[in-house]
Structure formats: structure tokens, C-alpha cells
Design brief:
This protein is an all-alpha fold and 323 residues long. Helices cover 65% and strands 0% of the residues. The protein has helices at residues 25-34, 45-52, 59-65, 68-71, 73-110, 114-129, 132-135, 139-146, 161-169, 174-192, 199-217, 230-254, 256-274, 289-311. Helix 6 (114-129) packs antiparallel against helix 9 (161-169).
Length: 323
């Protein structure tokens, strides 16, 4: 069982069973960001052939990954494209919500409306949580958006959402920190709006989001000035559920039983997270060990089940598909 902490000392983690995962997801996302200005990036030939190969050449894959997609390759091809488009739309919506919240934050902070600015900051944090996993591929931009005070070098300042959080709940150069954040938010929106991931990579994003909640956000709250760390827990868990929803039609063709199981696990996880209370008002210190343990167990079960399901999507590739 993972220990729970209410302070911010380094956390000793128990060894967890290895999970199937994509070692190169951040590399894929970084590459997409690097070539963001090159139009017309489409699927690789391997991705296209995986969805349209004949029954003769997919016999082995069928026995390993399930026969639903080989029996109806057209439906599988459509589901691959649908997953990529749906995930891109999800990221576009998350980045737009993030930028909109930052804009409101800048306006309310300038007007001296602290209560509204605090609400805006929490909304911006929730928007960022939806894209956090993808931002790990761009360490520089990620640091400017969500840097913790402990991430900064000694005798240096930190920036992004957590600097604004400090300013609003404790005190600091609010106008300057908000202006810096407002300058960086559209950069993330521009780059991430061009991300195109195949179904396996989309599923892995969801796994990584669940793991981040279980390993980081839940045991040690990241909102160290507002002490409203459930914002990260709830927003990231919901983002993971949306990523699963993006690949669910394809997964249901490949492994209907496993897909139904993961869907039920997400429903249970949704309920457990909701039971923690309103993330914008429930302080970290009021969430007891039993509640944390219940959510942690469901997080681990859901992530493990999803990781196994994601492995079944290997024939459809990890890179971008046509949009």
C-alpha cells in the first residue's frame, strides 16, 4: 500500500507491478511539436496497412489481438481515424479551456477581484491537467506553465500556475506572474493543437494520466498554497476517461470483453473521485486515509486493466493517423 502524506517531504513509493506501456510516448509527442509547422502529416504506411491488411496476412495478429477488427477491417479503419480525430478534438478543447481561464484570470487579477481570480486559477489548473502528460515532451514549456517551487534552482524564482497560486493565496507579484503565464498559454495551445496520435498512444496517454494521479497528485498534493489538490486529481482522472472514450469504439472491436471491463472500472473510479467532494473547496487535509486508499486501489486497477487493453491495440500503431 502506498503511504499517504499531508506534508511535502519526498515520498517513498512501494514497488508496483510492471505495466505494459509505450516507452516512446514523450518522444512521439516531442516529435509532433517539433514538426508542428509542417502541414499534412499523415499516418505511416505501417499504420495504414495494419487496418487494411488481408485475412491471410493478419491470421497471427487475429489470434493475438482478437478477430473483430479482421472480420470488419473497414469498421476498424474508421475507428482508428475516429480515435485520432476525437483525441485531437479533446486536446483542442482542453487547451482552449486553459487559455480562456488564463485570460479571465488576467482580467480579474487586474480588476483586483481576488475571489474571481482564485476561481480562474483553479479552472486554469484543471485545464492544464488535461494536457499535462503531453507537455512532458516539452520540458521548457511545461516548466513555464506548471513549475513547482521545489523544481526551481536555489535562489531562483519559479513561474506558471503555481506562482500565480502562491500570489493569490499567500502573496507575491501577481500581475507579473499572470502576464508571464498568459504569454506561454497560447504556445501550448498552438503546439498541442497539432498533435496526432494513433489509438495505442492515445490509450497510453490515459494510462499515464491515471498513474500520475496515483503516484503524485493523490499522495502528495501539488497545490501547496491553496491546498486544493483534488483539482488535479479530479481533472486528470476525467481527462484519462475521455482519452479512453476516444479509443473505446476500436477497442470494442478488438477486445469487447476487456473494453467492457475497463469501462466499468472507469465508472467505479468516477464515483470514488466524486465521493471525495467538490475539488474547488475541499482542502487536502480533510481527505482521510480510507478515502485515499479506496481511490488509489481503483486507480491502480483501472490503469492496469487499461494498460492490458492498450497492448491489444498494437496493430494500429502509435503514431499519427489521418485527421
Amino acid at each position: 500500500m502506498r503511504p499517504f502524506r499531508t506534508d511535502h517531504a519526498p515520498l517513498r513509493r512501494t514497488r508496483r507491478a510492471p505495466r505494459p506501456r509505450l516507452a516512446s510516448l514523450s518522444v512521439v509527442v516531442t516529435a509532433v511539436a517539433t514538426i508542428a509547422l509542417v502541414p499534412g502529416c499523415g499516418a505511416s504506411s505501417a499504420d495504414r496497412s495494419a487496418a487494411t491488411a488481408s485475412t491471410t496476412t493478419t491470421t497471427n495478429a487475429s489470434s493475438a489481438y482478437g478477430s473483430g477488427w479482421t472480420a470488419n477491417p473497414t469498421a476498424a479503419t474508421d475507428a482508428v481515424h475516429t480515435a485520432t480525430r476525437a483525441f485531437n478534438a479533446q486536446i483542442v478543447a482542453s487547451t482552449a479551456a486553459f487559455v480562456d481561464a488564463v485570460d479571465r484570470l488576467q482580467s480579474d487579477a487586474a480588476a483586483g477581484d481576488t475571489a474571481a481570480a482564485r476561481s480562474d486559477e483553479l479552472a486554469a489548473q484543471a485545464g492544464y491537467d488535461g494536457i499535462r502528460v503531453l507537455e512532458t515532451g516539452n520540458a521548457v514549456n511545461g516548466a513555464t506553465l506548471d513549475e513547482l517551487s521545489t523544481d526551481a534552482a536555489p535562489d531562483t524564482s519559479f513561474g506558471g500556475l503555481h506562482a500565480v497560486e502562491r500570489d493569490l493565496w499567500v502573496g507575491g507579484p501577481l500581475a507579473a506572474d499572470v502576464a508571464s503565464l498568459a504569454g506561454q498559454a497560447p504556445v501550448a495551445q498552438f503546439l498541442l493543437g497539432r498533435v496526432r496520435l494513433g489509438p495505442e498512444a492515445v490509450g497510453q496517454v490515459a494510462v499515464d494520466q491515471l498513474n500520475w494521479v496515483g503516484d503524485v497528485a493523490l499522495p502528495v498534493g501539488q497545490e501547496r498554497f491553496s491546498h486544493l489538490g483534488l483539482v488535479d486529481v479530479a481533472a486528470t482522472e476525467q481527462a484519462a476517461h475521455r482519452s479512453f472514450d476516444d479509443v473505446e469504439p476500436l477497442a470494442a472491436l478488438v477486445a469487447p470483453g476487456q473494453t467492457a471491463t475497463v469501462s466499468a472500472q472507469f465508472a467505479a473510479l468516477d464515483a470514488d473521485v466524486a465521493a471525495l467532494g467538490d475539488p474547488t473547496v475541499v482542502p487536502d487535509a480533510t481527505v482521510g486515509p480510507a478515502a485515499r486508499l479506496a481511490v488509489t486501489r481503483q486507480l491502480d486497477a483501472t490503469a492496469a486493466g487499461l494498460a492490458r487493453l492498450v497492448a491489444r491495440l498494437t496493430p494500429f500503431g502509435t503514431d499519427g493517423a489521418p485527421s
